[in-house]
Amino acid sequence: MTTTEDAPAARPGGEPPLLRADCANCFGLCCVALAFTRSADFADDKDAGDPCRNLAADHRCGIHAGLRDAGYRGCTVYDCFGAGQHLSQVTFGGRDWRGAQDGGRAMFAALPRMRQLHELLAYLTEVRARPAAAALHPAADRELARVRALTALAPDALAGLDLDAERAAVNPLLLRASELVRAAAPDGRRRPGRRGADLLGARLRGADLRGTDFRGACLIAADLRGADLRLADLIGADLRDADLRGADLTGALFLTRSQVSAARGDARTRIAADLGRPAHWS
Hints:
Layout: H1 30-33, H2 73-77, H3 83-91, H4 105-129, H5 137-151, H6 155-159, H7 163-182, H8 257-262
Helix pairs in contact: 3-4, 4-5, 4-7
């Protein structure tokens, strides 16, 4: 029998390809739609709707292989959960924003909204794949079908969606799934929660944090070297510059590629294979 101690470093079922960014089938939407400010994450200022100066005519990044070295660390952290290619190929039927009558404004406005829906789909897909949350699988199936239907809306209808209400509708299911999964960790039901906690720069090196609820916690620059984060709930946790070298995040709940890419890790850091190991970790 597999236990928490010997569970594989993978999430049940992984993540469907449609919820992963496919830049080859996207019109570089994130490189145009989003604004960024000159900072440690971006080398330049850019207004929303203006193409990044590094965006090539084929919608690919001209400095993709060297983004971090060129000062665009923020670009390597962003993940659209597959919303970019869905908008490009499905919602707008393969029509390039460069030839659109509105200059692409409708596409650009739709990107952050579609991204939120795809993020919900990713979380619900994970609930559906967790054996410990089997009692919730029928409800997860219903919510998956409902949110998928929302991603098929026309741009005008998408713009009118109350996304806060959509998140609120899904959130109780995610919370219950978290409780069921984390209960499998040693002392999972009794471990003190850290939901929404301010743990900026916290010294948690080597800590036993199995099954801890870090939902929405600020873990910026936290020292988590060698920490045991198996089955911890990390939904919405801010892991920017968190030191995960040697940490074990096997089975961590709702962990995303954006969070992993924003943190620091190394060859000893254990994460699910489908999340991918950021190049800067090596």
